[in-house]
Batch of 3 targets.
Target 1
Amino acid sequence: MTIKMTLDQAHDLAVRALQSCSCDEENAHAVADTMIAAERDICKSHGLFRLPGYLASLKSGKVNGSARPTIERIAPAVVRADGHNGFAPLTLEQARGPLTECARDNGIAALSIVRSHHFAALWIEVCALAEMGLCAFAFTAYKPSMAPAGGNKPFFGTNPMAFAWPRKDKPPMAFDQAASATARGDIMIAAREGREVEPGFGIDADGNPTTDPNEILKGAQLPFGGYKGSAIALMIELLIGPLIGERTSPESGRLDVEDGGPPQGGELMLAIDPTRFGNADGWEAQTEALFGELLEQEGVRLPADRRYQNREITARDGIEIVDSLYEKILKDTGLPREFGN
Amino acid sequence: MTIKMTLDQAHDLAVRALQSCSCDEENAHAVADTMIAAERDICKSHGLFRLPGYLASLKSGKVNGSARPTIERIAPAVVRADGHNGFAPLTLEQARGPLTECARDNGIAALSIVRSHHFAALWIEVCALAEMGLCAFAFTAYKPSMAPAGGNKPFFGTNPMAFAWPRKDKPPMAFDQAASATARGDIMIAAREGREVEPGFGIDADGNPTTDPNEILKGAQLPFGGYKGSAIALMIELLIGPLIGERTSPESGRLDVEDGGPPQGGELMLAIDPTRFGNADGWEAQTEALFGELLEQEGVRLPADRRYQNREITARDGIEIVDSLYEKILKDTGLPREFGN
């Protein structure tokens, strides 16, 4: 059973739910924006499905729902944002201007975000930069859920890496991919819905391959592409831990209060200005020529194109959330029932 | 049958072979350094196995064996090196100082290399930066050999991405991985040695899965991790093509003279100074704590550690190259026989 609502209704529900748990208006809007962007593109694992986790971390007091970030340039091409233990979306929103300016000044710039709580899809922030004409990377770690190649116990987070490339008069080419064979959210959803997952996604607590999502959640996820995905996960630990001075996934695993919400952690973004690399007049046409030729192969699509198609569907039809999620939101917040019977 | 020689003998052989084909001394040494670094670490697919290709590209006149790069800072954090159609190693060697200085000045810096011919392992250049205390990324494209996810014809190069992280008093953590399920060099070696390769490495000319390396060389390699490796390959095309204004893999495929040597192409490197990100006092200890905990899991090793172990073997025992390769080098160069009977 599902409940239908418009994107505006879903956004309003998210804002009121967050506010009911002592999140201030500015933070509630920033967090709702990221969840509803995911709902809009039918990325359910990062949509309202995350709301109970956000609420739990407000209730436990782990996250400060009224935090304001402080942002400074700590080197000519490095911007550092301290989230002061708030949710990441407001920090990302406020750091976007300084990062963009820094990348345009220098050709390339980095943004390190610390003391922040990240629970959203990374494509949201790289696409926001690409909409402003910049190429962007984003990396974040989480808590141990994935075994390293050769190992059999959780160590790495699912550690996503996102990339976006700007296009003239078109939405960006973008991808956002976990270093794990699949996103943790998808395994959680499969568990909730009682579905099996594909072989290669994870192992049980004894290190044996399994397709039961509940066993994987007790055991460990596996990296995509074997040792190559594992190497990318390790790279992300280094960028998020030692480089910017935040918690690695194993550190988060030990320090998080396990309230179901996002742990304290960091994020690294890189922004590159394609007009500062010696090909200012050619990069847009060469991009379109590359994509055009790629799409001549039947069966090939650009990453993110499915999201852009989904966007048309939800603009027309609104979104659906499962009953049980809506019930949980009502229960967690005490908000009055507005949808369903 | 193999021929044994010391690393110095192998280096000397490479230098003389290159010089016999009108490569000047400085370029010959730089190219030999990269091939012998690979031999030293028993990365055979990027060792002397590449020498006939280098020689062919000198003989065809495609590569200028006496080229000298020009290097300039084109934005505060962007260094651009024009290789003037020489081999990449000398350009990389000469750009290293300016890139390092630029990264230390700004916290992060990029190096774009254009009009260059790259045929070596990328870990060589990222490790050189990490030995100087910087974190480094490198990306390069090649010629079409890999089908995109969902497609069935070569489009992307094997498009490697390399990463290195500096360690106190230890060699860097580093990886260098093709976006393809395996390196093209390994498929070429399997073909030469008459061995099958693993399932998932490639498809034949009709798009059907095959384990015959000769059929894959006529058909297409496949990305690692399905659509995720394919997305990384596409990212690298954008960084090497539109961003820096060099040829994408499909463009190289159309423009290269197919002499068996490296096509004209570009490379992008990013260098990050870990002392400029707000964790100057903590990053080294946090790195070692992360690695120490990771290695507690049985069966897990750091990427590159096998190379460092191999380095001890070749320092003691020298290297071996297959007979047929040595014969080819003698035939291509007219050098006198010094090894074997």
Note: The first helix of chain B runs from residue 7 to 20.
Target 2
Amino acid sequence: MNKWYIEKGDQGDVVLSTRVRLARNLDEFPFPAKLDPKGRNAVNKIVKDALTADGADTFKCIDMKELTQTQAVSFAERHLISPEFTQSREGRTLIITEDESVSIMLCEEDHIRLQVMKSGLSLHEAYDIANKIDNILDGKLRYAFDERIGYLTQCPTNLGTAMRASVMLHLPALTKTGKLSGLAATVSKLGLTIRGAYGEGTAARGAIYQLSNQITLGITEQAALDNLNAITLQIVAQERAAQRELLNNPAEEDQVYRAMGILNSARMMDADEFMGLISLVRMGAARGLFNVTIERINELIVNMQPATLMEMSGRNLEAAQRDAERAKILREILVS
Amino acid sequence: MNKWYIEKGDQGDVVLSTRVRLARNLDEFPFPAKLDPKGRNAVNKIVKDALTADGADTFKCIDMKELTQTQAVSFAERHLISPEFTQSREGRTLIITEDESVSIMLCEEDHIRLQVMKSGLSLHEAYDIANKIDNILDGKLRYAFDERIGYLTQCPTNLGTAMRASVMLHLPALTKTGKLSGLAATVSKLGLTIRGAYGEGTAARGAIYQLSNQITLGITEQAALDNLNAITLQIVAQERAAQRELLNNPAEEDQVYRAMGILNSARMMDADEFMGLISLVRMGAARGLFNVTIERINELIVNMQPATLMEMSGRNLEAAQRDAERAKILREILVS
């Protein structure tokens, strides 16, 4: 079965993916940070049973402590789990669908962290799927819920809808032309936040950003999704215009073609350089300079991350071996 | 008719070309620097008549002042004439064969500067051709010659045989590993000199060097050629070994493949960057990494020089237009 991220998505030239995440807690248990091992196991079992009660084999349950470190990090690289979820894995379960579009972390910060991912811009569709699964669970479990302040969560910033919706955006032209910092200030006033999606630090690797809603209290899910959707569409239009202008400059266009030339001929390619070059190539593909599809590039961005690369090759690799393996795959995929 | 430089040459992986140059002066005229216009015209006419007397249409006579600046510089880029010969062109003639292997400058530093070029290492063959033409001229003209000190030339460093033999060498690995400076000191003790073949300055553009004999007095032509030939073969062996060692290093091999990727995908390519990249690609081709032939690369090195590029495209080009035209031709020739 195809993974969700190789599907063609709406506004796919700029929007890589959409994610809707709901945080839920069980009324009769303390938050995970306060749970003893027995309590954690109980929470894991209760939620797993609720999800798989109807004999549905839609979901696969993964006991996090059964995973190798590489497998766990690869899940984080694919944004299926949070980096924190890979750190301490005892008493934690990951539940996923085969296409990896739905993933549920048990005993992360909250008892239940349910997320749905879709390719491109697809906020309402992602929410609808999350909502359906949430309704199933709601029918079988007793959520910690307060009529006045909504879903109770460990972190007060999630109180209310406890919904975090986000879109992953590729903004190479707005980054290059220095317009991104202004944009960050603007979206902040509109109740949103934007930050680099890959790696820590200030510079967003590959010019890939995550734009998400900040407000969960005093707003409905639909209103939050509408707001994020509208602002995303505006940014998409700005980025497209900036890309067209940038590529009208022969020196910038040259850099894009060179990036492709290096990616399809290098014998060694580390993850940092890859992210910089694939970002240029993705912009070129988005504006019709190359034959390669945006979905193929999205897949590469996922698969070329260090742990996922090792998972694909089926063995542990030293840094230099990873760089050689990455270069080899890139040459095969990006034939000019 | 094919130009001499696209022929396959002996030791061609390292030796681009061989050049033998003879300087001759007419007994009854002062050296060119002391000649008035009338005298220069007389020298031009006498030598031209001597060469074309037998009705041979082997030679094409070019009045240097009829050339555009671009045409003249292109001849210099192809090493058919000296850069000085392009500066003041009044009263100067260039005589060449169609394949450009023989070129004769009239009224350069000496009355006659006869040079023969061959692909690869071919010193004796080049000398034999030069000697044959020299004999024809000798039969019809009276050379300035002294029994004791040989051919008389304006510059005393040419007295004696007045022969300068040289080979153009591509030494990227000896350059990269820092062994070239030691080599320069060694060949100097053996009566030879080595210097960058392209451009001024210390760094040899494209790691292309000219190795030539320094001694013309008290040595026969054959002895000078034998000496240069033997030392060239030693350097060739050293360079080959250094190339093999260098390319065993994955990071260095990576640079070679990247150079090819950039050359066959860039949209803008200036002459300096081209020389650096083509040098790496030439080394890769010499060691069997690429399908492109050494002769094709040699041709590119000649044709991608600024004035020659404009001559090929048939129009004057601004720097940015040249860089775009150069990149376009490279993409066509270096298909991966």
Note: Chain B has a mean pLDDT of 93.
Target 3
Amino acid sequence: MKRLVLLFAAAATVVANAQQNIGFRATDITSPVVNDDHTVTFLISAPKAKEVTVRGDWEADGGIGKCRKVDGVWQYTTPPLPSEMYTYRVNIDGVMMTDPTNPFTCRDVGSVFSLFYVDGGAGDYYQVHKVPHGTVATTWYHSNTTNADRRLTVYTPPCYEQNPGRYPVLYLLHGSGGDENAWTELGRIARSIDNLIAEGKAEPMIIVMPNGVCTTEGAAGETSDNLSFRPTMTNNIPGAYKNGIFELAFPEIVNFIDARYKTIPQKEKRAIAGLSMGGMHTLAISANYPDMFDYVGLFSAGVDFSMVDMDQPAYANLDEKWRIQAQKEPALYWIACGTDDFLYNNNKEILRHLDEAGMKYVWHESTRGHLWSNWRQYFLIFAPQLFK
Amino acid sequence: MKRLVLLFAAAATVVANAQQNIGFRATDITSPVVNDDHTVTFLISAPKAKEVTVRGDWEADGGIGKCRKVDGVWQYTTPPLPSEMYTYRVNIDGVMMTDPTNPFTCRDVGSVFSLFYVDGGAGDYYQVHKVPHGTVATTWYHSNTTNADRRLTVYTPPCYEQNPGRYPVLYLLHGSGGDENAWTELGRIARSIDNLIAEGKAEPMIIVMPNGVCTTEGAAGETSDNLSFRPTMTNNIPGAYKNGIFELAFPEIVNFIDARYKTIPQKEKRAIAGLSMGGMHTLAISANYPDMFDYVGLFSAGVDFSMVDMDQPAYANLDEKWRIQAQKEPALYWIACGTDDFLYNNNKEILRHLDEAGMKYVWHESTRGHLWSNWRQYFLIFAPQLFK
């Protein structure tokens, strides 16, 4: 560790001229407003702007809304939106920004977005209700493979501490550009599982969300690289993408979790799932360690083999590994993809490989594309099928 | 709990036109750049803007920097800044926003700010180094007083799980407008204590950060009010401010922590400290429960008695309570305030009360005002004095 020296003496020589308040919310505008008919109205105060546009991850109007100035405030109202969580940014004269008066944001890869929910369906699951709540912890495990302490997020269910019993474990993997915060921040996973457990739809389970970028210790800003590592798509990071190192090292994580937490350390009580790049990780991990997981979930899996070094141990002889995995008859091999996903055809190709290997799987085809709304909804369908 | 209904069928009827990418970072600009001489350069791309200003919580130039357009990019460079963490926003033609290309943000009360560090002193402590790391968990306790599950943040030190031993506990309270995330997000407390422990300067300790706004379950966006509760200064919330309910109910939290965690449940191994409103809470809690805490820290304490109902049980007869507390001789009663703080004179008045009560205390007078830089630095001075 670099030697740290406190320099309070130096600070004391600075002439005091404190900015005791660098500007909290300076307007009475509340934006967005989710209306009773599930339309959503954005209100942006930008008196000198020539053009204001809202751009979000909904489908209506193509996710683009041109604002009109009404009583001096730029406004746009969407058509009615399906119940979901939505993220968006505002474009004011060519500058993309979060909604200036919305305090609720999340980071997706390198950009910060504003967010809101529409009630009445899936979106209800992503919100907090008066039900027993689990605990979300960020902690660190040591990886001998990468010779580093690495950060991961762990959800433990309500009553985990009081109950003397042991729990099944779901390992849940993020996509390219994501990190160990992605499933809690963008996936709203603690809320979904709290609510599914409270309704009796899902078994109480531990959910482990590791970091799948083996060149880093964890999320951008949370490692010893601090702010010098800026978040980017994982395929832009040399040595980080689909070389099979993370996949082959995965037992390190399982061993750490089994040692630290009250798990049931058996195949029948372990599941693994992942989105996009994490779907590819899931595919390879479960094929290479066929006695480790009884439940497998691929969410819009990034199964583009042209981008993978198929000579690497994790990816070599996959057809043969699938034959062995198929003979062990996993309790669930669940594959979900949207019809608009740019990986749709790649996923269909995987089905042909699995068919040849004699693997029994469930194919779930949804609408829409490579989107967090799909991944959140896949989880709501996948989690209730686990550990029954 | 409201009955939740999945409406996947309804979603399937929407014509698919997925926004598979709603716009990640679209520029090669990196802002800010912390230069070797500790000046900081901001680069803002706003081609159509008439005026661009940076506003931050540093003292140089009054924290305001007017940008000039250089090669089509708005730029401003600060004078050299003392080592710290800094937050700022950008004003483009009257719209306040985060720096469009800086992915690192934090929320303070109702506004989202961009952030950066300057190395070489206190700022080093707020960053991650290659040292053993503790665990940060958000969990929930039940309050009989408010008849609600309430959210709190708990730091456990490195080796907490492996070590069979038990640990002292610091209770650390936020200010008005803050919540149970404030000390981890804005206070960078997990990094500071990891680094202090690694240097042998502080004892390994548990740090508990509850929510001091007794009308809520927790931080805005994290409760069953979801996004309908927007963050605001606590004194704007009816029934939430300095009525003594949180203070009198405090043993609920201590009992929960002693039951859940491997604590040393003795006065000699308990500390309490808080900033601003949390300093007032600390003052009242430690006076009302003089056998609970041996270490007390007031950081820029919000000790404006004109805003408190002195007839409430928590605030009644404080002078008499202080006399009793003084007789019990706390191991440390530490009071810190900046010379520019608008609460400076109120804190000096508290010293006179404590003098009359015969309380031995340590007065730490810093430069600057009612600022997170002071509170982060107070922690670096306070924590090493605990549990020795």
Note: The radius of gyration of chain B is 23 Å.
